[in-house]
Amino acid sequence: MSADLGDLQAFVAIARAGGFRDAARATGAGASSLSEALRRLEARLGVRLLNRTTRSVVPTEAGTRLLERLGPALDEVSAALDVVNGFRDRPAGTLRLNVPVSAIRLVLPDIVPAFLAAYPDITLDVVAEASLVDVFAAGCDAGIRYEERLEQDMIAIPIGPRRQRMATAASPAYLARHGTPAHPRELLQHACLRGRFASGTMPPWEFERAGEVLKLEVTGPLIVRIGATTDLAVDAALAGTGVIYLFEQWLRPHFDDGALVPLLQDWWRPFTGPFLYYPSRRYMPAPLRAFVDFISREAAA
Hints:
By secondary structure, the protein is of the alpha/beta class.
């Protein structure tokens, strides 16, 4: 019994992504072409591999067994073909990164232009994602996350600034109306602009000074999805709606031009900067190896 390699790859992509649309985004193929490839494969094998509903795509028992054996094999095929990259003067191919919006704003702008200039045959495909995801299932080679959100079985190397802080700020107009807080607990009486993760978790505002750590559950008139709509909170802060709590680097331009006033600076809590993470495996694709080497050289410079 034989099957077309492209149809097998389509099945693995759909099963790993959990849907045709996400698989299409991960592979660059059309959702309709993936659906047709799966139909051909199931017809050739004479068995249903994926149960499809309007809400989900889930492997059948036969599909699960096939994925367990086929997935690693296709990964090895891809790795074997990529070995040829090692014989080129310059590595080529696509590098897919899964990163939070904060990294797109604060980390990648200082890295991407120089990397692409050094490796003109590599295409960088960046996907914005706030939550921690399986990079393989998302069709990505690597991701960027902070230490507390890294999976234990991943390789992680530092990328970007090694120390960061969350800053609190408000516009001069807001402070003129409501006063300037002298202690973090006074924020409980202020209009605070909050963020919520895709999971529904709304992180507290954290402060630290002289060994004292405070975690505050503030309230306010606006809640935004962290990453996707953070700029709306910044715009609201600039308009005088309330107090914002965000990366110091993100707010720095507004501090410099006076549009926002830093608050409680001696309470800003530092934390470790982000990491580039990728699965531990025997073979690393050439574009990813080039990126890892580039990041390591930049860190050593």
